[in-house]
């Protein structure tokens, strides 16, 4: 198996949620010589320096400083996002029911395909906040329970004979997972905190709060007659995050300053301090230019010499649903990275930026495809245009084609991921 595909599968298994994805990327970057900078310290940079910073434990930004001043060369940026649709656990989550069965109260995050979450082994991952040096400085601990712990059980067909003809689901009633059956030694109400504390080797009373999510415990894998496909959770958009981090760590010193920016909360609109709608990256970019002796004008000059690739996956042609796709612009699995276009400017792509990415693909030896929505189907937006609300940078929206986007198990192509990494590395070289 190709080493980049092996790396992707392991990355997906190690990254069951946005917080763990960032934790995994931190380890990759530090292994490759990147050091962490804190946003509450001075941001000073020098040519050839490699560093990263994080925001909210769920967004990460890897930066390789170019040998030439940023004012002269601008930035080369690849953006992706760390979050995926799913379920978050509410506070006071335990609900004891008839017969001692305990379920957890959850809230839907983003727009998952709800049916795909039924009757699967699930577990819990996320961030746990514990007491720190004082009230304003609590500590974050990462939680990854790796054994199956829960399941959302479907109602039997015998109680709903029309289930296969369409069955509207209640997010509050139908989607609560079962976690336990009480016995004489268990107490409802503290069960979840006790499990978390045991996993982290702390006392339950040390826990102040948490951001905990459900995830499917089945491993990422390849499939197909020739193992040409990838089946995994969170391919949207961790596959692009993996490609971006791989590209920046596998290219050597460059003249231009390169950034792999992995934002959070794209699935809920990016309107958070760690999302693409925040000024978190723009502020650091300006601080970097200023640390090299430039002012705001120098920063503006740098932005106008910059280019951004906004990488979020695209919809592949589904052989069972031909009518859902544009007749002439529907990318196929294995056909190469996609340039995403929307005439109503839901994507940042225009002819000029599309031509740049197409040329990068040609120079890297990768095929390239176009994705345009069927004119009767409304399309969504992604990171590109949202980030340009902070910085007026030129760029293109791209992604690899995939099936079952927002399912608990999505499908993509081995060749497409390999080719996207080739293009990203060529862009950053």
Distance between the termini: 25 Å
Order of helices and strands: HHEEEHEEEEEEHEEEHEHHEEEHEHEEEH
User: What radius of gyration results from the CA coordinates?
Assistant: 22 Å
What global shape is seen? globular
> How would you describe the oligomerization state of the chains in this entry?
single chain
What is the number of E strands? 20
Explain what the structure shows:
It is a single chain. The protein is of the alpha/beta class and 429 residues long. 26% of the residues lie in helices and 26% in strands. It contains ten helices and 20 strands. The chain has helices spanning 3-14, 18-31, 70-73, 191-200, 235-250, 280-291, 296-303, 351-364, 383-387, 414-428; strands spanning 35-36, 50-55, 59-64, 75-81, 86-96, 101-109, 122-130, 139-144, 178-181, 207-216, 221-223, 229-232, 257-263, 307-311, 314-315, 338-341, 369-372, 394-399, 401-402, 410-413. It has a nine-stranded mixed beta sheet with strand order 1-2-3-13-4-14-18-16-17, with helices on one face. A hairpin with a 5-residue loop joins strand 11 and strand 12. Helix 6 (280-291) crosses helix 7 and helix 8 (351-364) packs across helix 10 (414-428). The protein is globular. The chain starts with a helix and ends with a helix.
